[in-house]
Design a protein that fits this description.
Blueprint lengths: L1 E10 L2 H14 L6 E7 L3 E4 L16 E3 L6 E4 L3 E7 L2 H4 L3 H17 L6 E2 L6 E3 L2 E11 L2 E9 L32 H15 L2 E6 L5 H11 L1
Parallel strand pairs: 1-2, 1-11, 3-4
Antiparallel strand pairs: 2-6, 3-5, 6-10, 7-8, 8-9, 9-10
Helix pairs in contact: 3-4
Length: 225
């Protein structure tokens, strides 16, 4: 069993958050506590390492960012909970495929708390409800440590997904908690999701960070100037 630190951020731009994840992963030591970050991003399309530009059909005024995570193209925006999982999977004793499976199970169990029956698809990582995708996964493993993570649609603007082939699949239906008549507030949902991640990732204790890191304070300041 491991301990972890959790951070709850407001809406923050994608790029400084990505740079902070990489910096944390590169600088952490063998004894560094894992961290789980919950946040929202302003509207952005992100392309994974396998992402093909042609899967962005009509970005319009939404920026497109090429990232170093796995997977194809996805959308992030307000009304969507993003969870970044900075986990030492080598210390946990699992591989990348098992990490994906555990995250999927945590999301499925979170949705079950709202009487939503969901499932994973071994051919297309993520979580689905009646064939419609409600949560996406995209991870990067570096030196036995993960970063990037998951996104779970609460009450996101689903029309934005029509501007892309979600995760590389043309016509992939997308759904949300709101569309399924379950719309918990962000805090409640993230508390349930954290509980399930703690269980499935064998985290003994989760402590809330007391102070915001410098990168976040600077990013929020830049957004308001």
């Amino acid at each position: 069993m491991q301990n972890a630190l959790t951070r709850h951020f407001e809406c923050v731009d994608y790029l400084p958050c990505w740079e902070a994840m990489k910096a944390f992963t590169d600088s952490r030591a063998a004894t560094t506590e894992d961290e789980i970050w919950f946040l929202e991003h302003p509207a952005v399309f992100t392309l994974g390492q396998a992402g093909k530009p042609e899967h962005v059909l009509a970005a319009g005024d939404i920026p497109v960012v090429q990232t170093d995570r796995g997977g194809q193209v996805t959308y992030h925006g307000p009304g969507q909970t993003v969870g970044y999982l900075l986990i030492d999977i080598e210390r946990l004793g699992i591989g990348s495929r098992e990490l994906v499976s555990r995250i999927e199970r945590a999301i499925i169990d979170t949705l079950s708390a709202y009487d939503i029956v969901a499932n994973a698809n071994p051919d297309a990582p993520g979580v689905y409800v009646n064939g419609a995708k409600i949560a996406s996964l995209g991870l990067r493993i570096r030196k036995g440590r993960s970063y990037h993570g998951l996104s779970l649609n609460r009450d996101v603007v689903l029309e934005h997904f029509r501007r892309i082939n979600p995760c590389g699949y043309a016509g992939q239906p997308i759904t949300s908690l709101a569309l399924l008549k379950a719309n918990p507030d962000r805090q409640t949902l993230e508390r349930e999701l954290l509980s399930q991640l703690q269980k499935h990732l064998c985290i003994n204790t989760v402590n809330e960070a007391a102070d915001a890191p410098d990168w976040y304070t600077k990013a929020r300041s830049a957004q308001t100037n």
